């Protein structure tokens, strides 16, 4: 077994456990979601606008709430994720809510082997690229899955955020902005429920903005914009304060918490 396969298998096991915890958490608020509440955040809603009638591929979809939220807006969606438990729950939710999304369990880097269609939109969001050792393969897959004129949109935590070790009492800058070496962390709980007794064992990689943009442009995509924001829609980092827009920001405002990127297949 290759090193990367060991890393992926460990992450898959952890995400299978996270599905059980997250699906019962207040952060994912399953009851409100089932009653019609969208899980999508302002950044992606503004960026993608009217998706009615468009085909949409959602990469690393967890248990499908965002995928199904796009479905509710009229998109014809396919969601993929590494976690078989996540995909199982996503399919169950799709059936229960009588939506028409499809879900596929696979490693995101192997999407092309499992999903043969091409799409008007490819979407990915919040805590996704850190699980990938290689963005070159990722960029090529995105370009391959887009129709001509199609749009790729991602919104993600800023690379500077991942330079810190949050397992320390006071977050400590410990990891490289661009770091080839894998980062291993093991801790109790998960971002959606810090009091959970589950043990998260995670392998991750840090990718700078230059690597992200180069992976996409080398694959033939045109970058429409790259925006950086101080405000995060999720309160998942230490010592954030809520703003009057319902977002969260660090008091120091020394660096952005989020970036969003939109690209087009010419």
UniProtKB/TrEMBL annotation:
The keyword GTP-binding does not apply. CDD domains: AdoMet_MTases. Pfam families: Methyltransf_11. One of its GO terms (biological process) is methylation. One of its GO terms (molecular function) is S-adenosylmethionine-dependent methyltransferase activity. Residues 58-153 form the Methyltransferase type domain. Keywords: Methyltransferase, Transferase. InterPro entries: Methyltransf_11, SAM-dependent_MTases_sf. This is Class I SAM-dependent methyltransferase. It comes from Seonamhaeicola algicola.
């Amino acid at each position: 077994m290759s090193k990367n396969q060991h890393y992926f298998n460990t992450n898959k096991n952890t995400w299978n456990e996270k599905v059980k915890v997250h699906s019962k958490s207040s952060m994912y608020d399953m009851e409100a979601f089932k009653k019609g509440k969208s899980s999508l955040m302002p950044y992606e809603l503004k960026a993608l606008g009217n998706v009615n009638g468009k085909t949409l591929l959602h990469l690393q979809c967890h248990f499908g709430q965002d995928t199904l939220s796009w479905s509710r807006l009229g998109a014809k969606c396919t969601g993929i994720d590494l976690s078989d438990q996540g995909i199982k729950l996503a399919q169950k939710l799709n059936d229960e809510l009588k939506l028409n999304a499809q879900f596929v369990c696979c490693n995101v880097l192997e999407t092309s082997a499992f999903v043969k269609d091409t799409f008007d939109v490819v979407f990915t969001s919040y805590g996704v690229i850190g699980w990938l050792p290689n963005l070159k393969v990722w960029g090529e897959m995105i370009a391959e899955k887009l129709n001509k004129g199609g749009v790729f949109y991602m919104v993600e935590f800023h690379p500077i955020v991942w330079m810190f070790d949050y397992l320390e009492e006071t977050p400590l800058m410990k990891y490289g902005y661009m770091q080839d070496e894998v980062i291993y962390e093991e801790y109790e709980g998960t971002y959606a429920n810090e009091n959970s007794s589950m043990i998260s064992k995670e392998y991750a990689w840090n990718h700078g903005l230059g690597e992200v943009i180069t992976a996409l442009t080398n694959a033939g995509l045109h970058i429409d914009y790259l925006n950086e924001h101080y405000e995060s829609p999720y309160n998942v980092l230490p010592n954030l304060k809520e703003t009057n827009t319902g977002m969260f920001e660090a008091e120091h405002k020394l660096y952005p918490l989020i970036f969003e990127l939109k690209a087009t297949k010419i």
